[in-house]
Amino acid sequence: MTMHSPPQVTPFERPPEQVAFHRTELSVILSLYGRMVAAGEWRDYGISCLKEVAVFSVFRRTAEIPLYRIEKRPKLRNKQGMYAIVGTGGQIMRRGHDLKAVLRVLERKLIRSVD
């Protein structure tokens, strides 16, 4: 019986890469988030940076499941677009190549009729 030890990572090797939002992407997302907080729609958020996807989750309350997930999947860059808005039930509300265009789905929730 042979035992295999995990491969040793030298200081010169990079750890496994993870996907993250860029500063410009975060500024667009946080701008929308601030307007939704001011409107009383959203209250909390969470950011997850995983190996294949970066997720910005939006919550109405802290202890709930997210209302929306804004996902960045670079592997879909050349196919359907790397940005997606995922609703509570897991349905994809919008997918595309341009983050601002994808976020317009959520901005429509800000527009209300004034009597």
Q: Explain this structure to me?
A:
This protein has one domain. The chain has two helices and five strands, in the order H-E-E-E-E-E-H. It has helices spanning 23-38, 99-107, and strands at 44-49, 54-59, 68-72, 83-86, 92-96. The chain has a five-stranded antiparallel sheet with strand order 1-2-3-4-5. Strand 1 (44-49) and strand 2 form a beta hairpin. The longest helix is centred in the N-terminal third of the chain and has 16 residues, at 23-38. It is globular, with a radius of gyration of 18 Å. The termini are far apart.
Task: Please list the strands of the largest sheet in the order they lie side by side.
Answer: 1-2-3-4-5
- What is the percent of helical residues? 10-25%
Number of separate structural domains: 1
Q: Based on helices, strands and strand pairing, what is the structural class?
A: alpha+beta
Shape: globular
Weakly predicted, low-confidence segments: none
**Mean of the pLDDT scores?**
81
The count of DSSP E runs of length 2 or more, i.e. the number of strands, is: 5
Q: Element order, helices and strands?
A: HEEEEEH
Give me the number of helical elements: 2
Please give the radius of gyration in angstroms: 18 Å
Largest sheet: 5 strands, antiparallel
How widely separated are the two ends? Answer: 78 Å
Beta-strand share of residues: 15-25%
